[in-house]
Fold this protein.
Amino acid sequence: MIICYNFLDDLKFMNEMIKNWKIFGLIILAIFFGIVFIAGIFLFQLFKPNSIKEKSNNELINETRINSDNVFIHVPKELLKQDSDIYLIPNEGYFITTSILSHKGDKIVYAQMSNCIELLNQEVSEYAQCDWSYQIWIKDLQTNEREKIYSYPQEVSFFNFSELLIPKVYAGGCPLVYFPLAWSKHDQKIILQWANPTSCGSGGVLSYLTYTFDISTKQQEPLARYDAFFFDDYSKVIFVDESVKSLPQCGPVVQKNKGKIVLKNIETNEILILLEEPNSSYSLSFIDSNQMFLRYTADQVIEADGCSQIDSSISQMRGQINLPKLP
C-alpha cells in the first residue's frame, strides 16, 4: 500500500493559520490599546493638574455668573458671589448661584437652583411650567460630606410635618428665599439674607433682612433689620432697630419705628445700644474704612393720628458716633 503525502496542502493550511493568527493578534492589540487609552483618559481626569481643574472650574463659574446676572434681576450682586478656588458640581437639573468658603477653608456653603428659573424670569407667562426649587448646602471639604440647611419649597417628611403649617415667605406677593451672604468671624454661623429670585416685581419687605444659621445648634435666628453695616470680618453688625421710646409708624411698614442704633456681636448675639433718644428716627449714612466711627442722620417725630410723623419744623440732624470695642 502506497500513501501519498501532499506537502503543498499542508503548506497552504499553515499559511492560512498564520494569517488568521495575525488577524487575531491585531484584534487583541487593538482591544488592549483601546483599554489603555480609556484608562489613561480616566486617570487624567482623576489626577489632572490643579491648574487645569481651576481653569475648568473658572469657566463653569463664569458661565454661572453670566446666567445669574441675566436671571436674578432682583437679587443684589453680593448674594451671587462664587469662590473660584473650589470645584463644585450641582445636582442634576440645578445650577449654582452662590458659594462662599469658610475662613478656615475647611467648609463651603453654596446654593443651587432649578435650571428652569431662567425660563421663568425671561418670560413670566411660563411660570406654571417651572416648578422651581432652591437649596442651600454646607460641604465639608475634608470628608466631602454634605448637609442641606435650607430648601424651598420645604421638603415633606414626618419630622417636619408641623413646620409645614408655617406659610411660605412672600413679600408683596413674591416668593423670597435665603441667600448665603458670609461666614461669621469664627465660622460659627452663616449669615443669610432674604431676596426674591424670580422676575416677580411686586413690592414688599420683611421685618428682618438678615438671619443667621448656627452651625452647632442648626437653628435659624433673626440678625439685623435694615440700614445694616457689617464689619469686614463679619464679627459685628450695626443697624437701626425699633425703640419703645419712639412712636410707631403706620401704613404698610414692617418696622414699628427706627428709634435706636445698635451694635451687635453676630456670634454671641450681644447687643450694645449706641444711640436711643425719645421720638427719633435714625438712618445710617457712613462707616469709615477703619470702622472706628459711624455717621448718621436723625429726624424728630411727632404724633399724628396715633402714628409717628417727621416734624418738618425741625431740621434734620447729622451726627457721628465713635464706635466702642465689642468683644
Summary: The chain has a mean pLDDT of 79.
